[in-house]
Write a structure and sequence with these properties.
By secondary structure, this protein is mainly alpha-helical. About 80% of the residues lie in helices and about 0% in strands. It is built from 35 helices and no strands. Helix 17 packs antiparallel against helix 18. The radius of gyration is 41 Å and the shape is elongated.
Length: about 600
């Protein structure tokens, strides 16, 4: 009798859950059967009939049946009578009957009584009765107890949340997953933590809650799967959550579709999310329209994002205005975002002020952005201080930016270390910058390694053994990225091992990019191969760019050809360009040509 009555108690949040697919004919037959038994004095039938009528919302019909069963000592009826009175608005009377049922051992009644005391602010009494319910295995009691303990910061929260989750409570499963997720995030830097196992349990509880229709659990499960690269399943959970009205899931689904190349479908979900107040989705729509050149529509969505409380909206409005050369409006929006704590907006505002000549106004915004964690702002502060000659302060900010992975900042620190003679530390920073894609850092790192390497070993027969070294690899990386000095150096290394074709290729690349050394070396290579006329063309280009040796070579070429005036002209240029040894030789040649011309 007690079990049947307790199962008929569907109190979860103060209301009965109405099943949508119930068999109404069967229920009518069962109700008639129970009514006959109740009229015959069957207490259990009175309790069950009262519960059936209460579930259907017939409070007037249920109350006499429940009161009669309660008077006969049925604890389930006492619990349901409490539910009925609570629905009528008689909370204190309801609590009285719940107490009677709870003392008699009804777990649902203990749960309801605990909730009643918590609503009244009596937490000790609430905990007592909720614990009674939970310890009897009542899933709602376990969840309510966990909720109360969490509110108080009690360490036993997880234990009871887990109990409720293991018994199928979807909100408990979600909240347990969130708690474990936060714990994993807080302990992410711990060397002793088993991150894989913890992450697996988090996913397990999100999955359980999501499978039971919890839309936010589906959102978080989708995020876990997306991070792991399982995009198809992530999309399914985002879709499930989005269809249930979760705007963040609709927004995330939009980004997945965008990344897959389906911008039209992405826009549909972003629109849905933005209309539900998701600022991130509104920003995404703004960016989409801005890419299409629809600036007015883009501005409207950026404003919608801002109205939704997303500070990125103001920042994006600033970017939009800056692209349109609406500097005053850009500054206004950057300021709004920067004052709201947007660090990249603060950096952009500082750049805008600096471009306008207001260095003193830019500095505090750079500082604010850098202190908030903007790597670009830290680097920009370094540039600002370096421009003033405040090298120590500049280096401090460069180091901060480099520590956060800024490639150009690492190059600046590495260069400074080289100037100070700290080659080992310089190498460390140069490696970071070179690995980050800086061709200048790759070249400087190669030069450091090049200066250290011993002479190349020789074979027994006297042939030079060539094995590509690390410094050559860095030279080649810089050269392939268009670094002219690296191209010249790679050409020299190729020439040294007798690979004329490879040397010519790199010299030509450097020369065509404007390197006078590349042009000079290419000329030397061509001359050795018997192509002096073409060599003269490249020497002329090098000489006109200020290369004294190239000018001297040209003077000698024209002197041998008998074109004395032209030889004298290039000799004059070589004298003026130097260096000293070249100037001396060029002066002697010039004087000889002058005498020849005057003879």
């Amino acid at each position: 009798m007690d079990v049947m009555g307790d199962k008929a108690t569907l109190l979860e949040t103060g209301r009965f859950v109405q099943p949508s697919d119930r068999d109404e004919t069967g229920e009518a037959v069962e109700e008639a059967r129970q009514r006959l038994a109740a009229e015959a004095g069957d207490v259990e039938a009175m309790s069950v009939l009262g519960a059936m009528l209460l579930r259907r919302g017939d409070l007037d019909g249920a109350e006499p049946q429940l009161r009669a069963a309660t008077a006969a000592g049925d604890r389930a009826a006492a619990n349901n009578l409490g539910v009925l009175l609570h629905q009528r608005g008689y909370a204190d009377d309801a609590a009285g009957w719940w107490r009677i049922a709870a003392v008699a051992g009804s777990a649902p009644a203990a749960h309801a009584l605990g909730r009643h005391h918590r609503e009244r602010g009596d937490e000790p009494a609430a905990e007592y009765w909720l614990r009674q319910s939970a310890e009897q295995g009542h899933v709602l009691g376990a969840y309510a107890l966990a909720d109360l303990l969490e509110h108080r910061g009690d360490t036993a929260t997880e234990q009871w949340m887990r109990v409720a989750a293991e018994r199928g409570h979807r909100e408990a499963a979600y909240r347990l997953a969130r708690a474990l997720d936060r714990k994993a995030a807080d302990g992410a830097d711990s060397a002793d933590g088993d991150e894989g196992e913890g992450a697996g349990e988090v996913e397990q509880w999100y999955r359980q809650a999501a499978a039971r229709g919890h839309q936010r659990a589906a959102l978080h499960l989708g995020a876990i799967l997306e991070k792991r690269g399982e995009l198809k399943e992530a999309g399914r959970w985002y879709l499930t959550s989005a269809k249930e009205g979760e705007a963040r899931a609709a927004c995330a689904l939009g980004f997945l579709l965008r990344d897959a190349g389906d911008t039209e479908s992405a826009a549909v979900w972003w629109l849905r999310a933005a209309q539900d107040g998701d600022g991130n989705a509104a920003n995404a729509l703004g960016a989409l329209h801005a890419e299409r050149g629809e600036t007015q529509t883009a501005e409207r969505w950026y404003r919608a994002a801002m109205d939704a409380g997303d500070v990125n909206g103001a920042y994006n409005l600033g970017l939009l205005c800056a692209e349109q050369a609406r500097t005053a409006q850009a500054e206004q929006w950057y300021r709004r975002a920067a004052y709201a704590g947007h660090r990249e907006a603060a950096n952009a505002l500082a750049i805008l002020l600096l471009q306008g000549g207001d260095a003193s106004g830019a500095e505090p915004w750079f500082s604010k952005a850098a202190e908030a964690g903007s790597v670009d702002a830290a680097f920009n502060l370094g540039i600002l201080y370096a421009g003033r000659g405040e090298d120590a302060d500049a280096l401090r900010w460069y180091e901060r930016a480099a520590g956060a992975g800024h490639t150009e900042a690492a190059l600046q620190v590495g260069t400074a270390r080289l100037r100070d003679g700290d080659e080992r530390d310089a190498e460390r920073y140069l490696r970071c910058a070179a690995g980050g894609g800086s061709p200048e850092a790759a070249y400087r790192l190669a030069a450091v390694l090049d200066a250290r390497r011993p002479p190349a070993p020789a074979h027994e027969l006297g042939e030079i053994a060539h094995e590509k070294t690390e410094c050559e690899e860095w030279y080649e990386r810089a050269a392939s990225q268009g670094h002219r000095r690296a191209q010249v150096r790679v050409g020299m290394l190729a020439s040294a091992r007798g690979d004329v074709v490879e040397a010519a290729r790199w010299y030509r690349a450097a020369a065509e990019a404007g390197s006078r050394n590349g042009a000079f070396n290419l000329g030397l290579l061509l001359a050795r191969e018997g192509s002096e006329p073409e060599a003269a063309v490249w020497w002329a280009r090098a000489a006109e760019a200020g290369h004294g040796r190239a000018a001297l070579r040209l003077a000698l070429v024209y002197a041998r050809r008998g074109e004395l005036a032209e030889g004298q002209r290039w000799a004059d240029l070589a004298v003026s360009l130097g260096p000293g040894e070249v100037a001396e030789r060029a002066a002697r040649l010039r004087d000889a040509l002058r005498e020849e011309l005057s003879a």
